[in-house]
Specification:
The protein is of the alpha+beta class and 157 residues long. The protein is 30% helix and 33% strand. GO terms for molecular function: protein-N-terminal-alanine acetyltransferase activity.
Length: 157
């Protein structure tokens, strides 16, 4: 598995994965992915040795040099590839980018997504809020989680 920048050629497969992973809510459309890439987000594709898209992740950045904030907008891994460390690799790559800019990082995660919550907590995130009925149309709640800004010298493993 290798990580590379997400490109337009990957979007069709991302949309397919969104429909599998987030069918009970509002999966992202192709236009949403295109808009994120056009806005300058840091998006990655996780590709197998035979160039199959196994997962994707994205980080949005706002602010100015010295005062950056980052938001994890999405992480998705195809069910056939879950449990193989792909989500962890994607998250670490997003956090490395945030650390280059010394950016605070936030995200939202479903309150019933225990494996994702554990992943985020292992990487320094803490729960800072609850968003009732955040995901639609399911009405599922989300935790807002945050990780303080770090410098690249503090990143381990």
């Amino acid at each position: 598995m290798r990580l590379e920048p997400l490109r337009g050629k990957h979007i069709r497969r991302c949309v397919e994965l969104e429909r599998i992973l987030f069918s009970g809510d509002s999966p992202w459309s192709a236009s949403a992915f295109h808009a994120e890439l056009q806005a300058g987000g840091f998006y990655l594709a996780a590709l197998t040795d035979d160039d199959q898209l196994a997962g994707y992740a994205g980080l949005a950045m706002v602010g100015t040099p010295g005062d950056w904030e980052a938001s994890v907008h999405t992480i998705g891994v195809h069910p056939d590839f879950q449990g193989q460390g792909i989500g962890t690799a994607l998250l670490r790559a997003l956090l490395a980018r945030a650390d280059e800019l010394h950016a605070l990082v936030t995200l939202e995660v479903r309150t019933d997504n225990d494996s994702a919550i554990r992943l985020y907590e292992r990487h320094g995130f803490s729960r800072i809020g609850l968003r009732k009925r955040y995901y639609q149309p399911s009405g599922a709640d989300a935790y807002t989680m945050m990780r303080q800004a770090r410098g690249t010298q503090e990143v381990a493993g």
